[in-house]
Amino acid sequence: MTTHPLISVEDLSVGIRLPQGGERRILNEVSFDLRSGETLGIVGESGSGKSLLSLSLMGLLPPVGRTSGRIIFEGENLADADEDRLCEIRGNRIAMIFQEPLTALNPAMTIGDQIAEGLVWHRGVSWREARMEAIDLLEQVRIPDAKQRIETYPHEMSGGQRQRVGIAIALALKPSVMIADEPTTALDVTVQAEILDILDDLVHEYGMSLILVSHDLGVIARMCSRTIVMYAGRIMEEGQTADVLTRPLNPYTRGLISSVPHRAANGGRLPTIAGTVPGFANLPQGCVFSDRCPDVIDACHTTEPAWTRFDDGRGVRCIRAAEEAAKT
Question: Is residue 133 part of a domain?
């Protein structure tokens, strides 16, 4: 693994323009690096900004979105790139597996044509050559009878098969970076395991970097070498996955870990994080987690915590960060 980041995100913020005027910030000064060959997990509750971050990296924000900060990919700032340049990079250098394949896939095209389309546009090969390669890609993602299945439409496939097609489309041009946004959502446990096995095998085979977005800590623990914890559009904690999950420094991270179902003993009530993720129009003053935090002190309600980086590479956003680090 090289020391030079493949992607370096610097103070990335995303605001949404409001119909009545003004702007509401959804992502707030997000910064992280992704290195070549690394698997990075992004975890947090629904509404924490994980998927919006993924779409920002791909340049797929809606027209009302406005981005500030920098997204440096192979020396180029994608935040300043125009649509033509982004179209050259999407799928070719950075690819994405979307959360719901039934809506991500075109219902009017066969899966063979949808896989072949990127090969035709980016590589300039013929449709015949591209469809032959599509068969190979379907076999790589373990869809049986690939020669026959390329004529299948998305609605004729199961959820797990559609997700495999989404992986095949993302894999087609052998990108440097693959972003997987909740790739196992709504799949049963057996199919989830198969999809994760496929992703793991392909990442190692092609040496690509993976950003895996999930709310499932078990998936993150299995797949990712490093993990980012997000809440209300901010990074709350970052570090090696083993450290984050076994020695969390932020109360929010501890709350997520304690809520994992297998930690309930003797059929008792599961621990939960009190309250709900606040809407971006109603964020509390000071720390955004202060209204739910079990370790809150008065200063948390008035002071927004700074990002603290420790010598071991761990990072945390919490007023009591040094105190918590001393305990671990």
Answer: no
